Amino acid sequence: MPEFRQDPITTRWVIIASERGRRPSDFETPPPKADNAFCPFCPGNEHTTPHEVYAVRPAGGGWDLRVIPNKFPVLQVEGDLDRAGDGLYDKMNGLGAHEVIIEGPEHKIPLAHRSVERINQVVRAYHERYVDLKRDFRFRYVLIFKNQGEAAGASLEHPHSQLIALPVVPKRVQEELAGARRHFEYKERCIFCDILRQEMREGSRVVLENEEFVVISPYAARFPFETWILPKHHESSFETLSANQSLALARILKNLLLRLDRVLNDPPFNYMLHTSPLQEGPSSYYHWHIEVIPKLTKTAGFEWGAGIYINPTPPEEATRFLREARVDREF
Description:
The strands form two sheets. Strands 3-4-7-9-8-13-14-12-11-10 form a ten-stranded antiparallel beta sheet, sandwiched between helices. A four-stranded antiparallel beta sheet has the order 2-1-6-5, with no helix packed on it. By secondary structure, it is an alpha+beta fold. The protein has six helices and 14 strands. It folds into two domains: 3-22 and 38-166, HIT family, subunit A (2-Layer Sandwich); 171-324, HIT-like (HIT family, subunit A), CATH 3.30.428. 33% of the residues are buried.
């Protein structure tokens, strides 16, 4: 079974994925896959994947979207945590859920080029699975993320997203929660709401907005063309997403991804959804959001050693390029 191990200095958890055991030769760069390579996510190959836990099926048959357990999960859903000490160190079983959201039956149509309605199906799938996994009180956090392109970590070309339910709150999210809580204790306001007010007033880093969401280039962007999608009104948990908000999120996500596609020539990218921990109620200090990061630079020795990122593109300049990008229409 996989194992969580905690760094006693930073308190960061890592997953020792023993089930995925790899030898030194396994880390060599594999040759590119042929265009006709077998794809388990394509229609007709459903029998090769684990049984779906959620699906969207049109009236005429077939499917528009499937959610399946990952065939090679990072964590295992069966069992108990069995927390234990190992001298100075802390560890526990690698308990969790790992699922794949197959975004459509078409093998080569990326999310940006799907209709708003189809993207909305993906957003609703995220929400349905989030709400369902919250019922398992062993889980404290659900991280929903997408890797597009091999450089961004995608092992299969067929468009898909993933989610991992965890028995711990990730360190990155803990840092956001702690910073937001400090700001609220001092000013009795949500830091994300304050950021939104200032960014919308100044305008230089606002990429897009619609009736429900705003896309900004963060002031201290870590990476070139990094953007965040935030609800306009205070919402601490993705769980509260309404049907109207879901559709508005699908529209603004499509618009943003098309602009990144146009400006950066179809870049590999990651996006991640950060939200309040599962078993916490609504909070006044945190604000859920999606972070979108094109894979344009490499994280090297300085960044790993110092924890300080070098971004060669000012966020104000990235915003200007994205705002000026021509897309077919506004969504």
